[in-house]
Amino acid sequence: MAFGKSKNRRRQDAAQTKEAVKGAVRSHGPGLLKAILLTGLTCAVVWGGIELRRWALSSPTFLLKETTFSGLQRAAPGELLKLSGLTVGQNLWALDVEMLERTMAAHPWVRTVEVRRHFPSSVSVEVSEHVPAALAVLGDLYLVDEDGEPFKRLQPGDTLDLPLVTGMDREDYLADEAKTRERFRQALEVARAYAATEPTKRERLSEVRMAPEGLVLVLADGTEARLGEGDTDAKLQRLSRVREELRARGLSAGVIHLENRARPGWVAVKLSSPASERSGASQ
């Protein structure tokens, strides 16, 4: 009898287990099926992506056939291609655009560069070049752009008629590049302001000297105009009137002082003839 009861109990346990399994399948089956399907789909997408990438990197469809440049004035396309290593036949998908931009930007005339891929087989390169605004003496002669950045050592082939900025040395620049660029920007602002008041080539600016006491302009005829610090526009207007008066009288100045801080409206003129000197003329 005891044996029979044990056998019945095993049947009951088996039945209960079966029912429990059926209940688990009913409650968790849909979710489990979705997880299996999602895993399979993910694997398919990953595999497909790998195969697609392999095809894209090997397909002749995406081989570079043409590179176009825009914005070039002084830099040559061949020079930029040589710097970057970009050549016909390279795969567009495999190009490192950021690396191409960095290497092309190493060209001294290039200020900014942007490389774009145009699928299936071309690349465009948009370049912004430095615009030279002055020459600076920093040991050697350097070209300085409109932002006050010395960007290139002057070479024999650089035929440019630009004002010279002096008064800073290479050690000053290396010690504090930001401060030096700011000083150059100030000098360029004065040069532009002077050009607006004296537009003729005869009166062009030859040099901007950054002296301890302030800016000094050296004009094409050798005249020194000592501006000092501040109030640049008003001083340039006074300089223009003084030079007009000197021309009307047939005189030429060696030095024109406009840096009198105690009496800002006063101008002192030292004529180019040592025997003649006028000072304290209010303008």
TrEMBL record:
Residues 1-22 are annotated as: Disordered. It is a single-pass type II membrane protein. It comes from the Bacteria. The keyword Flavoprotein does not apply. Residues 62-130 form the POTRA domain. GO terms for biological process: cell septum assembly; FtsZ-dependent cytokinesis. Keywords: Cell cycle, Cell division, Cell inner membrane, Cell membrane, Membrane, Transmembrane, Transmembrane helix. The keyword Isomerase does not apply. This is Cell division protein FtsQ. PANTHER family: CELL DIVISION PROTEIN FTSQ. Pfam families: FtsQ_DivIB_C, POTRA_1. Residues 1-10 have a biased composition (Basic residues). HAMAP family: FtsQ_subfam (MF_00911). It is found in: Cell membrane; Membrane. GO terms for cellular component: cell division site; plasma membrane. Essential cell division protein. Belongs to the FtsQ/DivIB family. FtsQ subfamily.
